[in-house]
Amino acid sequence: MTLPPHAGPGSDPGIGGAVAPGGSPLRSVPEASVVRLALYLRVLGELAEQGTETVSSDELAGASGVNPAKLRKDLSYIGSYGIRGVGYEVAPLLRHLEHSLGLTQRQAVALVGVGNLGHALAGYAGFAGNGFPVVALFDIDPDLVGVGINGILIDHVDELRRVCAERGVTIGMIATPGQAAQGVCDQLVACGVRCILNFAPAVLQVPDDVDVRKVDLAVELQVLAFHVARRHLAAAEGPLNVVAQAAAAAINGAGRRVTGGTS
User: Which of 104, 158, 165, 170 has its CA 20 to 30 A from that of 132?
Assistant: First the structure.
């Protein structure tokens, strides 16, 4: 993944992020690092609200759930290296992350599929609060078309191209049944949408210049179920392990006594 140039005329170079005049070229950043950069941004926002002015790499890493070396490596991708003995200044680093993650640019989100999950997503105020306003809603259900959610009327999917163009949609969210997801994805791509968040239980096929993030709640629950099962298994094996260890100790003790008696 590439992030936008993180500095240029009039932009904030961040902490220790000096760049050449005229801005720097796009730099490839590992997907996992981009995810963590977004996490650092959230933590920095919380620190800023608390009035914190500086934070060490150890403190920021601890609050983000990563190790300090990984945090410093991630921030180096966007030209932020901190100040020795001080750490990072919260406000400038926060602004720098916002710029690097593209959050200073206008974003507009279209949601396709306003069933149970889609309705909840459409009503979530946190998207707009974080710079991702939902500006368009689509469905094929005639009972839903024309219904308003948070002031946005649901349009029929047939209107997707026109509405997306009129409202400058940059990100598409798909919350349809699995069998409909690829067709919806194809329509979004045809409209010029190059970033898609997929909640549908389907793997989408897209051109190389389209980025897709998949959120599969069922899979996440299955992963958690695996950990629950492992804990139950460990708890059940605990008493058996104690018995086995005691038996092994008794056998070893008996062996030592026999050996001692024949020497």
Answer: 158
